[in-house]
Design brief:
Distance between the termini: 47 Å
Strand content: 15-25%
CATH class of the largest domain: Alpha Beta
Catalytic activity: ATP + protein L-histidine = ADP + protein N-phospho-L-histidine
CATH superfamily of the largest domain: PAS domain
Number of domains: 3
Largest sheet: 6 strands, antiparallel
GO cellular component, one term: membrane
Pfam families: HAMP, HATPase_c, HisKA
Number of strands: 18
CATH topology of the largest domain: Beta-Lactamase
Number of helices: 16
Helix content: 40-55%
Keywords: Coiled coil, Kinase, Membrane, Phosphoprotein, Transferase, Transmembrane, Transmembrane helix, Two-component regulatory system
CATH architecture of the largest domain: 2-Layer Sandwich
Subcellular location: Membrane
Amino acid sequence: MSIRKKFIVFIGLSIITILCTAFLLGYFYLYLPRLETIGSNQARAAQQLAYALSAIIDERVRDFPALLAFRGYGDVLAVANSRYRDINPEEIVSQMQEIDKKWSRITQDGSYRQYLNRDVSDDLHRLQKQDSYMIGELLLTDAHGGLVAASGKTTDYYQADEEWWQKAVAQKGNVYVGEAEYDASSGVFSVPLAFALRDTERHLVGVFKVVVDINAFFYILVNYEKQEDVSITLLNSRNEILFHAGVQPLSRSLPEFEAMEKSGRKWMIVNDSSFRERPAGVFLAYADVVHPWFVVNGLHWKVIIIQDKDMIMRPLYLFLLRLVLAEGCMLALLLVFAFIFGTMTVKPLEKLSRGTEVVAAGDLDYQVNIHSGDEVERLAKSFNKMTQSLRQTNLKREQAEDNLKRALKIKSEFTSTVSHELKTPLAAIREGVQLVVDGSLGPVNAEQKDCLQIVKGNIERLVRLINDILDFQRLESGRMAFDMRPNDLHALIREVVQTMAFSAQKKGLDLSMRLGPGPLVCLFDRDKIAQVLSNILSNAIKFTEKGSVVVSASSRGPHVLVSVEDTGIGVKREDIPRLFQRFAQIQEKGYRKTGGTGLGLVISREIIKHHQGDIWIEPGKHQGAVVCFTLPLQQNPSAHA
């Protein structure tokens, strides 16, 4: 990326950072406080509606028990209860259940009136008609649950098996208020209100039930919706809807309230409401309807206010929009200034960049001409001085390279010549010594034979040293040829081990092999790999005074792994890299006394590299060392000449 672009990007990122900071500050110090204030106001409004509903109950319903208790129905109830004076309770229930079975039929033909007190029923009917908006039905039962009077037709005669009757009797002085339900007798959604009538000795004489139409509570909710342009929902204890515009009571629930109730908050924002689908979401705020009757009977009605979030937050959104537009204009203006200033700054640097490219391509005579009067001009002058220095250094380097090439050529020719000249007389000396040792030229005593064996060993050591030097010279110059063809690696290992067996026996070492069954065929130069194995085995035997040397070979994926493990003096991990350096020797006790050129492992590494393999050394598990190398199984390495 160019400096001009970096400068523009820097200015852009700075403005974006400012924008993000402004948004974060606006979110935390404007948006969230505003949201919290609105939510609290909505929750207070819901609480006021809950108080209003509680007041309606006090105003319209609370006096019903006292009103009905003093209407003089005691004599009627006494007559009704006297019918059961000499009948046991089981028979009373049985008689009432028999009447209950035929009740639906006799209510249709009108004969049900014979079971009811007509005067009380007419009185209850008048009371219901006087406040039909509030009262859906009135009925009176005796102490055993039999129907005594009703304001209209009822669906049952025997009421003692009804939950409202049993709980009203159990209240012992309190009024029972049940959950809202659909009353089949009155045909309205209602709240059952019941209380027990008792004589002066607190004996049960009857039970009154008032079916209160729940629509009587809704007018205040409807008025609030119209005034405040919000939606109101009233839920019962089971979170079923009692009131919501366009929704039938008890036909559905409000799942969003469960999430709000679990959160412990009195308000929350819901993105997908059951009644409104707005991208910005809606406000939900609620309050519990608290009334003594509700508390005693375990009722938990909730008033919920639902309002569109975007309608409430519109002023804040407009402020944020103006802020974004202002910062956007500022960003565009600063980007233009950044482009102009960046162009003025970058042009000298572009000249300097072109100069570096030309010089890097090899033109050391190129000069950068910049006259900006600042640090860039000084940098250009330093660049021109550097190219001049590079020209001089380059000339010296070329001269040094020519001298080095001539010296290397002379060294290589001298090494080859001396090595070949030494090999010829050494071969003749070795053959002559062997003839004397064998006794072909006359008898030799034991002492003379031992001396000749020492001479022969040193001659062979000198021959190996010369061969190592020649091999290293050929590898270094790239003149060593490789004869790559399929060979049995197991067979080669057996041959090399057999060749080295005599040396191991002389030192009392156990030389063994761990090879798989059958041949292990792969592509390699037989003589070169034999040389590698001989070098490794020779070192293992040389540095092992007692114990064993083990050669193993196995397939490892696309490679063959060959390892030679000994129980010798071993090698420290930090000394391992030095073993693959030319002419390197470890200067510790036990190493220098064995002698050598220090080229064996170097030559082995180059041979393995030409086979596209790898070679390394590891310390033994307990003692000694492990030398490993790999050869590819399938890949056909190209021969190098």
